[in-house]
Amino acid sequence: MALMDRFRAHPGHKHPDPATRLEFLEALPLDERELIAEVAREDAEARVRRAAVAKLLDPATLALVARDDADEGVRAQANTMLRDLALEAFEGCGESESLAAADALVDTKALSAVARSAPRESTALRALARVTDGHVLGSIARHAEHESVRRAAFERLGDPAEILSVALNSDFKDPTVGAVDRISDRAELEQIAARAKNKAASKRARTIVREMDERQAALDAETAAAAAAELAERPVESDPAERARAAEIEAAKQADETRVHEETAAREEAAARQRDQEAVAERDRVAAAQELAHKEAARRQARRAELSEQAAATAALDDVAAARRQFNVIRREWGGLGPAGADEAAVFAKYTEADAAFAARDTAAHEADQRARREALTRIQQLLGRIEPLASRTDLTLKAGERGLRDVRAALGTLPPLPSKRDHEDILKRLKAAQTALTPKVQELRDVAGWQRWANVGLQEQLCEKMEALASIEDPEEIARQVRDLQQQWKQAADVPRAQGEALWRRFKTAHDAAWSRCEAYFAAQAEARTGNLARKVALSDRAEALADSTSWVQTADEIKKLQAEWKTIGPVTRGQEKAIWERFRTACDRFFTRRHADLAERKTMWAENLAKKEALCVAAEALSGSTDWDATASEIRRLQNEWKSIGPVKKSRSEALWQRFRGACDQFFQRYAQRHDIARGERVAAREAICAELEELGQASTDDATPPVDLAAQVRALRGRWQQEIAARGVDRDRAAALDARFAAAFSGALTRWPAAFAGSDLDPDANRKKMEALVRRMEELAGSLAGGSGAGAAAVSPTTRLASMLKEALAANTIGGKVDEESKVRAANEEVRQAQAGWMRVGPVPDATRRPLADRFQRALRRIADATTPKARV
Fold it and tell me: In terms of Cα–Cα distance, which of 682, 694, 689, 692 is closest to 732?
């Protein structure tokens, strides 16, 4: 019977398939609280219970689930729902649900969140009352949204560190100022004054520190004054004569005071008698007025006592509306009686207490009424939100339509008070419209359902015939397969009229039992085979668990894949064991592959890091491959190579290409490094050729144009300076250097010769340079002549002025005038003049070669003559 019962129609939440139950639960509306709570408490599947808990809005049931459910995920979901209910995160969640959720919470973190963020003050206070941790109390005191919650949390704080934290870190004035008032340490107060986030706390701390300073200053002043007074009160010694005179003066003073006192007493006695007479008359007048006032006061007092009793009785009335009307009359009369006297404190307190109690009750009743109206409006709006779309749904079922129509009729029959008349009219209009739209739809579905039930009778008769026809089949496997198919078809056609349904069900079940009995041997063999399959899968699970912790990743992965392939070849196992054995095998496999993936991910991370490092080295090597700073670059590339060796591996698919890239950059530099001298020589030759080409281009321009180029002298001077720098660098073979020198000289001379006026007045002026050379030549020839003596052709060629200058130099050299010239001093003076002439000759700018060569020959001959004249052999 139990097997067949599985093919009857089941309620959605009782279906044997968890996926079906989960689908049914997802479609279930939130107002089905009892059904959702039943699923949350009793369903066997944890995921179904967790889904039910996510739709459950009942704090009491959530508390039971959070405490008793066996699944940690379900308990966590229940705690989350309790927290959200306490925070009123769901539409339609009222104060009662919020307070109940706060009472059910046990997690300190959730309680802290509710105390800090709950929209209702009462809920936040309820959550705060259940918090005991000092640090959490400090957090609530600093950050709670409601002032009363912050104040209550702060009042429960006892830890000085938390109090200081509140004073320093809270943005709200009330807890920070209170925290400052509870701190007495001066250093902490100064810290608050300097660092507190709230300005009021900083100001209060500075005030307290200032008051402490003022009190200390006052205490110091009082101490100093007391010391001065003590010194002033000390007796001063005097002689006997002075003491006697002082005694006489004191006695006379006392006699005068006695006389004045007696005269004053007499005058006061006379005045007193006069006042007594006047007072008697006044007392008689006042007594009459007071008696009248006392009677009026007694009447008012008696009436106030009566009103206080009436107020107390009225405040206790169950009918709040009637109590409100009576209390308004009592309040008006009480106000007309004036203020109560001091002896009416009890009456006034009784009236005040009754007034406050009724005011609180009236306010609560008004709030409750408004809240009830809002909640009623929310419930009806939710109902309409669920029902209004039903009429337009093409997949509407009869059950859903009838339930919706029933809910609409119930709402119309018991429409509660709503917040406003406009809300009432709008809701009434929408309910009637929904009823009008849904009624024909439901009637149509009822007609369709009636026809369907009638049609299902024929289908069930056919299914009964098919089940009875199985008696002619011999193959038990085929019988079992067809039985299952017929059972599934019967389930789909289960809705028939009750009169025919019972008879058809008995007929179908009788045929089913007869067919099923013929399959028992087949099922026994199946059970035996399933038992064997279970044993094989257990063995595979044992092997998989033994391999789950292996670190031989490739080999073990292949073995586990073989186990998985073998698992697929094994048939089904004993019913009820499928999930457990599969979970065991899958868990073992997943554990290995999870570890493998984690290791692979770690290695990929390492490969990626190494790849980034090596790519950076490639970029650095490529940047250095064209450098000409040979030694420094060679050292840096060797360092990069050593660093490359210290970096770990990268992904195999990238390793070779990356190595070839790095190696190519290094080889490119070292090939250039081996040829560095030839490269440098070529660069220097190229630099000189470039200078010659530029100078030749200037000469060509000078030849073609009628006027010289702009700044010709500056350009030629710059090229000459660059040429001299290149010559100083050397590094060019002799033949090539000579050819380039000749080429430069020809180009340079051509430019000077073509446009000598362009260089006039500069250091490149050929005529000025020629004159400088001629002057140096004459100077050396004169010096040579003077050294050779005053006779001969050389002496005759020397002018008198030159001879006089030579004599003066010789005299100065010998430190005498007219004395004998020191030969050594003369030689030194001559050599110094030669050195200066040679330096001046080197500084002379360019001169055409035809002019320069004769002058150079004369200059060299004069230098040789001077050298010959100054040698020791020549002087002997």
Answer: 682
Rounded to 10 deg, the angle between the 173-181 and 147-155 helix axes is 20
How many CB atoms sit inside 10 A of residue 502's CB? 11
Give yes or no for residue 517 having a pLDDT over 50.
yes
Amino acid at the residue 204: R
What would the pLDDT profile of 195-215 be if each residue is shown by its tens digit?
A: 777 778 778 778 887 877 777
Across residues 399-418, what is the average pLDDT?
A: 84
Classified as helix, coil or strand, 821 is coil
User: Does an H or E element contain 557, and which?
Assistant: helix 553-569
Token output for 367? 């709030």
Q: How far apart are the first and last CA of the chain?
A: 155
Amino acid in position 461: E
Tell me, what amino acid is at 193? A
For the chain, give percent helix, strand, coil, nearest 5. 80, 0, 20
Residues in Cβ contact with 313 at an 8 Å cutoff, skipping those fewer than 6 apart: none
Report helix, strand or coil for 799. coil
**Could you give the C-alpha distances from 297 to 292, 308, 341, 343, 347, in angstroms and in order?**
9, 16, 9, 11, 14
Nearest to 411 by CA among 442, 438, 377: 377
Instruction: Kindly report, residue by residue over 526-584, the tens digit of the pLDDT.
Output: 788 888 888 988 998 999 889 888 888 888 989 989 888 989 888 888 878 888 889 88
Asked if residue 779 lies in contact with residue 795, where contact means CB atoms within 8 angstroms, the answer is no
Number of C-beta neighbours around residue 117 at 10 A? 17
Q: Which residues contact 870 (CB under 8 A, 6 or more apart)?
A: 787, 827, 830, 831
Three-state SS string over 115-165 comes to: HHHCCCHHHHHHHHHCCCCHHHHHHHHHHCCCHHHHHHHHHCCCCHHHHHH
Rounded to whole angstroms, the Cα distance separating 689 from 736 reads: 11
DSSP, res 415: P
Cα–Cα distances (Å) from 718 to 43, 65, 695, 749, 770, in that order, read 99, 96, 10, 15, 21
Q: Are 151 and 174 in contact (CB under 8 A)?
A: yes
Torsion angle of the four alpha carbons 739, 744, 746, 748, in this order, in degrees rounded to the nearest 10: -170
Give 615-672 pLDDT, tens digit per residue.
Answer: 898 998 888 888 878 788 888 888 988 989 888 888 888 888 888 888 888 988 888 7
CA distance 214 to 211: 5
Query: Which H or E element spans position 876?
Result: none
Q: Which residues contact 204 (CB under 8 A, 6 or more apart)?
A: 177, 180, 181
Q: Which two tokens stand for residue 260?
A: 């004045």
**pLDDT band for position 39 (50/70/90)?**
confident
Q: How far is CA 780 from CA 811, 828, 840, 863, 864, in A?
A: 19, 15, 12, 7, 10
Integer Cα distance of 114 and 814 in angstroms: 114
If you average pLDDT over each of 170-179, 357-366, 421-430, 692-701, which comes out highest? 421-430
Q: What is the dihedral of CA 310, 314, 317, 320, to 10 degrees?
A: 170
Please state the pTM of the whole predicted model: 0.30
CB 25 within 8 A of CB 55: yes
Measure CA 596 to chain center: 33
**DSSP state letter for 764:** T
C-beta neighbour count of 777 within 10 angstroms: 22
Angle in degrees, 0-180, between the axes of helices 59-68 and 33-42, rounded to the nearest 10: 0
DSSP 815: T
pLDDT of residue 565: 92
Residue entry with tokens 């919706």: 404
Query: Residue 86's closest CA among 50, 61, 117?
Result: 117
Token reading at 337: 């009686």
Give the tokens for residue 672: 């250039």
